[in-house]
Please model this.
Amino acid sequence: MNINDSPDLSIVIPVYNEAENITNLYGELRKTLDDAKITFEIIFVDDGSGDNSFQIIRKLSETDPRVRYASFSRNFGHEAASTCGFRMVQGRAAVLMDADMQDPAELIPKMISKWQEGYEVVHARRLSREGESFIKKATSYAFYRIINLFSDIKLPVDVGDFRLVDRKVVDAFNRFNEHSRYVRGLFSWVGYSQTVIDYNRLPRKRGKTKYNWLRLILLSMDALFGFSLVPLRLCIIFGIVTIVFSFIVAAVIVIQRLFLDLAIPGYALLTTGMFLLGGIQLTFLGVIGEYIGKIYLEVQGRPLFIIRESSPDPQDVKGA
Model:
């Protein structure tokens, strides 16, 4: 597509079992962007949904040429679906948002205003998160602070996937090929001129969240191990501290036994030390194993995703 024929904006929406929300989300986006006189395309990426999400998306595409889609052969995950959507982008800017309708469409014109001011990445920062438990809010709050403490890059705190990025940022993002990817971190890593706008995240009205605790933990690990070597360096530091502590304890025992003639029962200290060292070793092996596992995934060279079906597209979208 010639750049002069490109829409102003591409909306990238990963979808996984969101049949209840797709039509309403499409209606809100169309009304908001048409009222703002913004030329746009909507790119739905069906991440192997088990409901009729894909059928709804395909029908929308048949009635509105501004709707494009790709459907995966199975569930490859939100990060892979986001990546696929960005590889299909034709607009001069792109917005990534979820399909659960918790990210308000009316915020997009405000993002575009910031983009027109010269910002190349516009993050949407959540001031409140209605409908979520205290534990989820607390862990999310802690997550961003911990990641920024250990990571080599600084993530904007309390920011999810909802953001606008310039075309040049999309092109930079599409150069990344790693499998264990954390999309939010990658958009911070690329640099460029970035800003945030605040909003109150809406509660989910239909359907259920697809992110359980296990998925959130795994995503957190991808974020930490993908952007920092601090865990490996902590292993070295803890190892040195343990060695020094062991020498000090050994010296104290020798002094007490030889010079103070104190009877020191050895089994308690020995048992405690065995459990301590065993736990430390297993933790270190786990950390090292995470990095080795990520190397293994990269060496395999498998595609990040496989497209089963997509809308007619002049661009050749590949999985890797």
User: Anything to note?
Assistant: The mean pLDDT is 76.
